[in-house]
């Protein structure tokens, strides 16, 4: 582990991070309805390994729903989703395979309150990956050190602050050694001063080459880490571009309006 | 330079007892306590005086007298020559029997119905809703009487089993007879019995039963050891060895061997004259009471279980699913352990309700503690005050024990916060 403490915001050059040609996620022509409400319309998205994608958009635009489709927390009704070469169908085996490749962090952390921090991190490796407990504990402690809370390992989630809980949630996902991480508004439920500690953890993750898709309103994070920003509205991908281009020369009117609203104050 | 001084000593005024917030609540509490004590004192004095005028000294000596009545459903030996105390004890055991059977069945049915009510299957979920609404919206007394009526009307009388071409036959290889008087089942008998163990003059405890319980206990202890070894193996290698068959064998085999040594065999009920003889039997009253109490309480437990599961946010299920856990594991590792904390406190009151509702047994003639001590004994001895006080004490003791045990369990599984 490198000794990079993110006490100050690290300088990171998105261009320096390598993006390989290998396709990690391929979504083509995906549609989803809630009853008669068309939530996602003709989504086409290819994610290469090592990409850091930020998804922005107004609430109700389908951002969360889209990334929740990638690990089947939501079911898509038409189109194709291929994750790491496995097509997402209702076949349980495929779902299991994809879920063990894809980690996810939620807005409200969703730690298991009846288990200690360490047990939260070892539960899935032990029961899903069939890792020996000793090894699972070692891995868990490694990742807890990485998110800088190894001393809280034997506490319960209720005893931690929001920022610490979200970092535990990240460590819990990492314990499954995923190749892709999904973040669903990871900082939206946090106090402002805790946002930074979570973002720093995510930046460190990006530096190590993790493929990341992040729904967030943190435009600073998008500028700094993302190699691509996607703007969604009314269930469609309206625009996608490199951060600089996206923020400086938005093409569609809808994007311009959105950016003026969130950056305007 | 300032000098520190004591705050000025206040002079105490009598009006402060009422108008000063520091003394006000204490004053009123003392007044209320005095009023309550006076009321109780007056009631006790009055009752004692009136009993005295009637020539009835409060006394519990009637408990040692011969009861002079029969009890048809009992777990221990009893005859009409036995004392009122023993009759009360038979009644107490009957109460505990139906309460324990009822709580167990109600929990099983309740959990199943509660989970199924959340099922995605429209028909199943609706059926469970109908069940819950039907049972919890009708007084339990009616369900008890209805169950009794159905058992009496729908089952054949013992005479139907007679003749060359009987109308009714015994079930399960001629071992069980279901009649309108009750269900006759085989009884356990020991040809090489170890005899009985006498506790005082009144109670006999079967040594056979003790031996079986000891062996069973030891087997379960060993089986748990095997399970712990499997846990250790899982911790060390990640793979959990399949042990359920060795565990089952360890539990079952020693007991079977002991039963064989004791010469265990079943005494089958047989039709003799107008009724069945041999075997043991559960009267209709017990079955009706058990059924009605279980089904009635299960409707409430189902709602509690449903609420408990719904109280766990969907985020928990999603997080577990995102980690790759399958539904059954999510239920057993994540949802149920948390739901238990919501379920247990109201579950305690359902167990207490069931136990207390079992006093409705008298409606179908099942002789529980209400039927014996506060029923026939009261009528025969005229000791209403003593019997009712004793009865209340018994129910109070049972209830306190149940809630004590459940609260202990609840504390053990409580969530740690802050």
Main sheet makeup of chain B: 3 strands, antiparallel
Which structural class do you get from the secondary structure elements of chain B?
Answer: mainly alpha
Strand content of chain A is: 15-25%
Largest interface: A-B, 37 and 29 residues
Membrane topology (chain B): Multi-pass membrane protein
Transmembrane segments (chain B): 26-45, 87-116, 137-155, 205-227, 248-267, 287-309, 358-376, 388-409
Family (chain B): Belongs to the binding-protein-dependent transport system permease family. HisMQ subfamily.
Keywords (chain B): Amino-acid transport, Cell membrane, Membrane, Transmembrane, Transmembrane helix, Transport
Describe this entry's structure for a reader.
Chain A is of the alpha/beta class. In chain A, 36% of the residues lie in helices and 24% in strands. Chain A contains nine helices and ten strands. A six-stranded mixed β-sheet of chain A has the order 6-7-8-3-9-10, sandwiched between helices. Chain A has a four-stranded antiparallel β-sheet with strand order 2-1-4-5, covered by helices on one side. In chain A, strand 9 (228-233) and strand 10 form a beta hairpin. The N and C termini of chain A lie far apart (39 Å). Mean pLDDT of chain A is 88; it is low at 1-8. Chain B is globular. By secondary structure, chain B is mostly helical. The two termini of chain B are 44 Å apart. Chain B has a domain at 84-162 and 285-413: Orthogonal Bundle (MetI-like fold), CATH 1.10.3720. The A-B interface holds A 71-73, 92, 96, 99-100, 102-104, 106, 108, 110-114, 123-124, 126-136, 156, 158-159, 169, 172-173, 176 and B 234-239, 313, 315-316, 318-326, 329, 333-334, 337-338, 341, 413, 415-418.
